[in-house]
Write a structure and sequence with these properties.
heterotrimer; A mainly alpha (about 700); B mainly alpha (about 160); C mainly alpha (about 100); A: mainly alpha; elongated; C: about 100 residues; mainly alpha; Helix Hairpins; 3 helices
Chain lengths: ~700, ~160, ~100
């Protein structure tokens, strides 16, 4: 085994060690905490690059390298864990460490004024370690453990400013919602272990994703005539759906924006939400395991594709009507995650993962840019109160524009175009149905539209911050404070924040070129095939039509956005949204996110509250009553005992003693003090004795 | 049951009965002396000469005199009343009479032993030998006892009034 | 009745006379001499049994009587001195008035 695979465990371990040491540091050791976190991430990045280079050099050899070890023994079996290195792993760890490193550096500037700086970096490092653990895990159990730690750190980081009740509630919501998915994940994992006897993915032929185990799983049927592999895959997909914000379990993602912006960028854009997509990619052999000849896609993959398509459209629709800069990006993330899932479902691992990688870069770029904007506007997050920032924050504007165009999928020079095209093309040629293609296409149009809307609101026109301060007393006080350094106008962020933006923007533009149809290097890298540069590939099936139609959709969306929001600059913060003026009911419906949250709180939350009240009643009256009864019983026995002891035993004893002393008193009457009476008695005794002797002798 | 025995017995009993019954304490002691003398003569009749003379020396010569001294020193030489409560006097006599009855019954009912034996001789030399050899330990202890009694009697009866001054 | 029995009867008579004195007289000294009389009766018993007993050559009876006499003397001395001391304390030799050791 090569040394890089043996030491691959350092990649997650270094950030975890950094987190452990940071946890022990006092609050004032800010530089130490930041250095530890950034240093460990840099080291992990270097090791990841080394791993990627190794995989690149080893294209002709064994693609999947594993390092398994025994953890503990129970019965006759050993529970084994391990990590692996294959193209998917190598790509993911490089992406996670690189994006993570840039965001860590950005956080040094963003959180510079926060007093809990050290705790922030501790949690960030822990998150990074856990996420990398999820990526390199060769065992579903190890993956699940790291998955849970990722969820934990997400909770800790969303609720970082725990004094704010909204942040605490959002953290709780995120944790509980993902927990519901994780429960299904656990069930699937247990089922898989029961059926296949191992949780290792690849174990020299004996792993659960390898041929023999899959054949066995596909052959067994269970409830509803479903194959065991389908059931397990669907359960695991529930876990992925929770983590990746697919439609029924998406409600936590917008609320998670309560956390600091670097957290939103790292966790809720680039990495953690991608963990769900990554999981599906990882267990893709299980999801695509089929019986006999491949006629139609498996049920599991169909479910994934449909859910993804619905989520893509759903997120895009809601994002159109939001006014919080981060919420727009959050719903956009939901939508893009839907695209990724759809890509996995219709096209396979390479299609979905390509969009995941490109999305990581441009979405984190957008979030960091939004953070820069928020920082520059002193914490203002409502886009109606921003404006004109293109002159005031030029670097941020340029980077944000690059990210926005990448997200929209602007043709040719932006990575989002190539990755989204891959997905749309696979959807067009999907054998089950064309509906996901149409949903995806409409979603692309909406994506372009809402991003244009956001950019014009934030960066276009003139600054509405000062104008709106007349209505807002808090803001007015801010303006009048002479000590507040940027009270008068928004300003560009420091270099420690803008340099990562620029780097990410460069990647957002260039990364697309590794996956173009002319040279699908990325796809072939993941699939294990070879590819070469061939412009003739553009004439392949459905490639050019999809490219042209998606470009047209993007231009339509951009144009609509310009017509409604860019043509006439928005005057003040109080003017109604143009789309809202056209279609007020639809707009407000979208603005309330289809009232899903309200539905959940009216049904599930209410039922849960009712049930918890029932349990409370049971606990208070039934269990507590039983315990109290027993305790009263015991107390009663104690009282009885006390009564018995005090009155019967004590008085009996007292009576006995008094009897003895009374007897003594009576007997003492014999002692009259008269010696001669004593002697008389002695004489009588003598008589008796002699009589006894006499009669005894006679008898 | 020779005549000498009966005379001596009567003398002794009379003396002791008088000793126990007379009202004047000095008269009691004098009668007691007579009783002691009678017992001594009985010893002589039984052939225990040494014991008899010892009886005279010790009892008549010392104990009786001592009793007289004690009576004098406690100012009891005037006649005293007999026991006040007749019941106590009566019950004491009854008990004593019962004791005598029982003892007499015991004595009389035992089978008489074998034939009369000749008078044994108890020369003083033999008594001395026995004292020095076989009974030397009781002798020494007796000496200790007498010393202790002597010292004790002195200490107890000593007049402490000079010390308290 | 042979000689032994007569002597024994005599000694028991003397004993009971002494007992009468010890039980009935109020004067402590007279009680003491009653006790002396009882001791004498016992001595007489011993000597009678020596004379008419099985082994007179062992002189056991005489020895016993000698020791008994000396002990009686010592006891009389101590007892009388105690009575003297009690007389000094309570100015009386009346036994009926010496009853403080009662229950």
């Amino acid at each position: 085994m090569t040394w890089i695979v043996q030491y691959l465990w350092l990649v997650p371990a270094l950030p975890v060690f950094a987190a452990a040491i940071s946890a022990l540091l006092p609050r004032r050791s800010r530089i130490a905490a930041a250095t530890l976190a950034i240093g460990s991430m840099a080291a992990s990045f270097l090791i990841s690059v080394g791993a990627l280079l190794h995989v690149l050099a080893n294209r002709s050899g064994d693609q999947i390298l594993t390092c398994n070890f025994r953890w503990f023994q129970f019965g006759n079996e050993w529970l084994k864990l391990g990590w692996m290195l294959d193209p998917l792993t190598a790509v993911m760890i490089v992406m996670v460490t690189f994006v993570g490193l840039l965001i860590f550096i950005y956080s040094v500037g963003y959180m510079a004024h926060d007093e809990n700086f050290t705790r922030f970096f501790c949690f960030l490092a822990l998150f990074a370690g856990a996420m990398l653990g999820v990526v390199i895990a060769n065992s579903l159990l190890l993956l699940f453990m790291c998955w849970e730690i990722v969820g934990l750190t997400s909770y800790l980081l969303i609720g970082f400013w725990y004094n704010k009740p909204e942040a605490a509630a959002a953290a709780k919501k995120a944790f509980i919602t993902t927990r519901i998915g994780d429960l299904a994940f656990l069930l699937g994992m247990v089922w898989l272990y029961a059926r296949s006897g191992t949780l290792l993915f690849y174990d020299g032929g004996a792993g659960c994703l390898e041929h023999s185990a899959l054949a066995q799983l596909v052959a067994q049927t269970s409830v509803l005539g479903m194959a065991a592999s389908t059931g397990i895959a669907l359960l695991i997909f529930c876990g992925a759906a929770g983590k990746s914000g697919q439609v029924p379990l998406h409600v936590w993602l917008p609320d998670a924006m309560e956390g600091p912006t670097p957290v939103s960028a790292l966790i809720h854009a680039a990495t953690m939400v991608a963990a769900g997509v990554f999981l599906i990619a990882r267990i893709y052999p299980l999801m695509s395991a089929h019986v006999g000849i491949y006629l139609t896609p498996t049920i599991a993959l169909q479910v994934v594709a449909w859910v993804g398509a619905i989520t893509a459209l759903f997120g895009a629709l809601i994002a159109v009507a939001q006014f919080d800069i981060k919420r727009i990006l959050a719903y956009s993330t939901i939508s893009q995650l839907g695209y990724m899932m759809m890509g996995l479902g219709v096209g396979g691992v390479a299609v979905g993962m390509f969009h995941l990688i490109t999305h990581a870069f441009f979405k984190s770029l957008l979030f960091l840019g939004a953070g820069s904007v928020i920082h520059g506007c002193n914490g203002e997050q409502d886009i109606r109160r921003m404006g004109g920032l293109r002159r005031l924050m030029p670097i941020t504007f340029a980077a944000y524009a690059v990210g926005m165009l990448a997200l929209c999928g602007f043709p040719l020079f932006f990575s989002g175009f190539w990755s989204k095209d891959d997905i749309l093309r696979s959807a067009l040629t999907w054998s089950v149905s064309r509906a996901p293609f149409y949903m995806g296409a409409f979603g692309a149009l909406l994506t372009a539209f809402y991003m244009t809307r956001q950019v014009f609101y934030v960066f276009g026109g003139s600054n509405r911050l000062a104008a709106s301060s007349h209505d807002d007393p808090k803001l007015a006080a801010l303006f009048e404070d002479p000590h507040h350094h940027a009270a008068q106008h928004p300003h560009e962020s420091p270099a420690v924040m803008t340099v990562p933006l620029v780097i990410l923007a460069a990647f957002a533009m260039l990364l697309g070129f590794i996956g173009t149809p002319a040279w699908p290097w990325f796809q072939s890298f993941l699939d294990g095939t070879h590819s070469t540069l061939a412009f003739s590939a553009f004439s392949g099936v459905a490639i050019l039509p999809v490219m042209i139609s998606s470009s047209l959709l993007v231009f339509c969306g951009l144009g609509l956005g310009w017509v409604l929001y860019g043509h006439k600059p928005i005057q003040s913060a109080d003017t109604l949204d143009e789309l809202g003026k056209l279609q007020p009911t639809v707009f407000s419906f979208l603005g309330h996110a289809f009232y899903v949250d309200a539905l959940y709180s009216a049904t599930l939350i209410r039922w849960n509250t009712w049930w918890s009240k029932v349990c409370d009643w049971l606990d208070r009256w039934v269990w507590n009553g039983a315990v109290q009864t027993v305790s009263y019983f015991v107390v009663g026995i104690a009282h009885l005992d006390n009564f018995f002891d005090a009155s019967i035993v004590n008085s009996g004893f007292d009576e006995g003693c008094q009897g003895v002393s009374r007897g003594g008193l009576i007997l003492s009457l014999l002692q009259g003090g008269q010696i001669q009476s004593y002697m008389r008695i002695i004489g009588c005794a003598l008589i008796v004795l002699v009589l006894v002797l006499l009669w005894g002798a006679k008898i | 049951m020779t005549a000498s025995f009966i005379i001596l017995a009567a003398l002794t009993v009379a003396g002791t009965a008088a000793a126990m019954g007379l009202r004047n304490a000095v008269h009691c002691v004098l009668a007691l002396t007579l009783g002691f003398a009678g017992v001594a003569m009985l010893y002589l009749q039984l052939g225990a000469q040494f014991v008899g003379f010892t009886q005279i020396l010790v009892y008549v010569g010392a104990v009786a005199i001592l009793a007289v001294f004690a009576i004098m020193m406690t100012h009891n030489d005037k006649p005293m009343a007999l026991p006040d409560s007749s019941s106590a006097w009566v019950s004491g006599c009854i008990v004593a009479a019962a004791v005598f009855a029982v003892l007499a019954r015991a004595i009389v009912s035992t089978a008489p032993s074998a034939q009369a034996q000749p008078q044994p001789v108890a020369p003083v030399q033999q008594i001395g030998d026995a004292l020095m050899h076989r009974f030397v330990l009781p002798l020494e202890i007796m000496g200790l006892l007498l010393t202790a009694a002597l010292i004790g009697a002195v200490v107890i009866a000593m007049d402490r009034r000079e010390e308290m001054k | 009745m042979n000689s032994l029995q007569s002597y024994l009867l005599l000694s028991s008579l003397l004993f009971s006379i002494g007992l009468v004195g010890a039980l009935t007289r109020r004067n402590a000294i007279l009680v003491l001499i009653g006790i002396e009389l009882m001791l004498n009766a016992a001595n007489l018993n011993f000597i009678a049994f020596w004379r008419y007993g099985p082994a007179p050559q062992a002189l056991t009876g005489i020895m016993f009587a000698i020791f008994s006499i000396s002990i009686a003397a010592a006891e009389a001395a101590v007892g009388l001195s105690i009575i003297l001391a009690a007389y000094r304390h309570s100015r009386t030799t009346d036994l009926n008035q010496m009853n403080s050791l009662k229950g």
